[in-house]
Amino acid sequence: MTTLKEIMSPKSIAIVGASDNKTRIGGRPLAHMIEQNFSGGIFPINPNRDTVQGLKAYPTLLDVKEDLDFILIAVPSDIVVSVLEQAVEKKAKTALIFSSGFSEIGGQGEIYQNQIKKISQESGLRVIGPNCLGLFNSATNFYPTFTSTIDRATPRPGGIAIASQSGAYGSHIYMVAHQRGLGIRYWMTTGNEVDLSVGETIQLMAEDPEVHSIMAYAESVKDGKQFTKALDTARSEKKPVIFMKVGRSEVGAAAANSHTASLAGEDIIYDEVLRAHGAYRVRSTEEMLDVAYATKPRIFPAGKNLGLVTISGGGGVLMADAAADEGLTVGPMPQDAQDQLKKLVPFASPMNPVDVTAQFFNDLSIVPKFTDLMLSRGGYDALIGFWTSVAGSPLLSKPLLSSLKQAMTGYEDKLFINCMVAPDEIVKTYESEGFLCIEDPTRAVVAMSALMFFGEKFKSNEIQKKLDLQKYLIDIPQRKLNEIDSAEILSKANLPIIKSSIIKNIDDFTPFFEANKDKYVLKILSSDIQHKTDVGGVLLNIENIDQARKAYKTITQNVQEKVPNASIDGLMISPMVKGGVECILGGKIDPVFGPMVMLGIGGIYAEVMKDIAFAEAPVSRDKAKLMISSLKSKDIFLGARGQSAVDIDGLIDAIVNLSNFIAINSDKIDQVEMNPILVSKNNVIALDALIITKSDYLEGEESGRKS
Fold it and tell me: 30 lies in a domain?
């Protein structure tokens, strides 16, 4: 199996397309490695020159007698395949392709890329790119990259690694990280990912003992299983993955016939997958840098109870607001501990945030005392101190640092972030003593939230148990299914579906109104109509046979006018059910990550409300409960404003059963939906059922392309 060191620490490199001009793409990597004293063998390949940048040049790879580990390719796309064939003949381990003109332009470029892929798969040659900016290993001065950032910012070896699909943005991340003082050991861009992907790069970085944190950037993921395995490896190794996922494309949204599918945008699926597998998603480069910086002490609080100490009441409120936004707890100190703090600092506000006011600097000897009280009595998992520019004072910075060091003695496993504005030399002094310094208090809280996220994930490190799902394996016809078909299938999966009957003509109503006085719902039954309300295909509160017959005619006429080509199987009649919370419970097969289950506030406004939670199927009962609690409307389920709490256990059962059903039948179905599903105090019942089979989905997708 390939290791990161095999790629990043070769004994020799050949540069095909090497240039004597240090500013050209084929010249920069050679210049970098000569200037930085790369210790391995360097073999320029250029048939038009005897020497390149002072080194002997060779016409082809085959003219080099020495063994070659790493082949760097910077030639036109139509030559690349023949160069790779020579690389295979030389038994090289890795080839990195700068060249563009492949799948990103289509046509002949796509053909070339497929040939590259075939060579890699058949030979075992690891290929990076094509159309990528390269990589580097700062510890060995290995620089097969043409990024200009190396000219201006020679990397400092450290414990952080960067993986990026984008070369230009990967360079940007490196440059700002360097300016922030972060030590970057490995940097790799993956381009078109004909072989090595961002996912596998994260895997290799997670397995490397020299890496402690990983920064990653991607526009998309091709292999979902490989990607989640990499994230799981990083989590098990307790290595933070700080991930920036961009793009909100409609991948996989063709033939999205259900609310579930239309709500399952690519972005929300990535959000859930990243969170579930322990990667922290950032929304800006600044946040990425803050979090990467904050991982340096390797302290990840497992709880979310945050202690705040400030010399400014306003600063304390600002941090408390940010903590609430991040879902952190700013719990008060116990009353007796507050009393002790008040004795120490009579002018303080001792609850949390603990506001000691600026007078605190008149007697820094109290710092260790109140810090000890906060950590020993407050039960806080970490602290943030807001000192503003006062800590940057040449007169106060050293005494404050000394007091903070004394305060944290015995609490080396606790994290203390200082919010302070100070010259670089003072900040570096604090950092050298293990203290983090972030100027902005909100950014400090967000960074702390990320560390607490990692702490929670590293502590749990749960692996999904393999479940026996055979009882959910059901014969599903590969054709368009109407609601009765769908309901019967889902009932076999132990899902709560209301009992309905088919009405073929007006005379079929008689039995329903002879024996009882129930109210009924009448709906159109058609495999061609998923959203019945939109076509006037639903009527409620039908009490007698006259109303039923009139409703029959109305619905039939509505459907004939609005969807005249729809195939009609009849109408369906069901008892009216009222009361409870309207939910949507559904599932879909994501093209990257596979079966997903969704819960949200439902009914006809499901897509308007968009209060939803997704999870990879199958889910455990604990995960199902977490899905419920993650909804903005979660309090409705608990009985908000005097209403009764709903049957949470019944809803959890439904989520788990649907997730099991879609997981085991993912080869036969594409989308499943129960909307609405009514959840009341004593009951959970779905009033509507929809299954889009795999063949139905593919047929719809093909039809969409033709149109």
Answer: yes
Place of tokens 């790879």: 61
Looking at the fold, whether 451 and 320 belong to one and the same domain comes out as yes
Across 358-378, average pLDDT: 79
> Looking at residue 552, which CATH number applies to its domain?
3.30.1490.20
Q: Are residues 421 and 513 in the same domain?
A: no
User: pLDDT tens digits for 576-588?
Assistant: 988 888 999 999 9
Whether residues 329 and 394 fall in one domain: yes
Question: What confidence score (pLDDT) does residue 264 get?
Answer: 44
Q: Are residues 571 and 591 in the same domain?
A: no
422 and 506 co-located in one domain = no
Q: What is the torsion angle, in degrees rounded to the nearest 10, for the CA atoms of residue 543, residue 544, residue 547 and residue 548?
A: 100
Contacts of 589 (CB under 8 A, 6+ apart): 595, 596, 662, 666, 669, 670, 671, 694
Stretch 447-455: mean pLDDT, rounded? 98
| One-letter amino acid for residue 546 of the chain | D
- Of the residues 543, 575, 607, which one is the last residue of a structural domain? 575
Q: Which residues contact 209 (CB under 8 A, 6 or more apart)?
A: none
Residue 171: CATH number of its domain = 3.40.50.720
Q: Are 97 and 130 spatial neighbours (Cβ–Cβ below 8 Å)?
A: yes
Residues 234 and 88 in one domain: yes
Token pair belonging to 443:
């950014």
> Percentage of the chain with pLDDT > 90?
71
Last residue of a domain, one of 294, 314, 344: 294
Q: In whole angstroms, what is the distance from residue 504 CA to residue 568 CA?
A: 10
Q: 415 pairs with which residues across the strands?
A: 382
- Does the pLDDT at position 371 exceed 90? no
- Domain around 383: 306-460
Would you state the pLDDT for residue 345?
79
The model's pTM is 0.91
CATH code of the domain containing 315: 3.40.50.261
Express each pLDDT in 521-563 by its tens digit. 999 999 898 889 889 999 999 999 999 999 999 999 999 999 9
pLDDT (average), residues 634-655: 84
Per-residue pLDDT tens for 234-267?
A: 999 999 999 999 875 454 333 334 444 444 457 8
500 and 483 Cβ atoms separated by less than 8 Å: yes
| Within-domain flag for 490 | no
| Helix, strand, coil content of the chain in percent (nearest 5) | 40, 20, 40
For residue 460, is pLDDT > 70?
yes
Query: Taking the CB of residue 324, how many other CB atoms lie within 10 A of it?
Result: 12
Res. 640 pLDDT band, cuts 50 70 90 = low
More confident residue, 256 or 398: 398
- CA 404 – CA 364 distance, rounded (Å): 9
Structurally, how many domains does the chain consist of? 4
The CATH number that applies at residue 695 is: 3.30.470.20
As beta bridge partners, residue 386 has 310, 419
Question: Is 33 among the domain residues?
Answer: yes
Considering the domain boundaries, does residue 325 fall inside one? Answer: yes
Residue matched to tokens 């990026």: 164
Question: What secondary structure does DSSP assign to 249-300, as a single string?
Answer: --TT-TT--SHHHHH--HHHHHHHHHHHTTPEE-SSHHHHHHHHHHTTT---
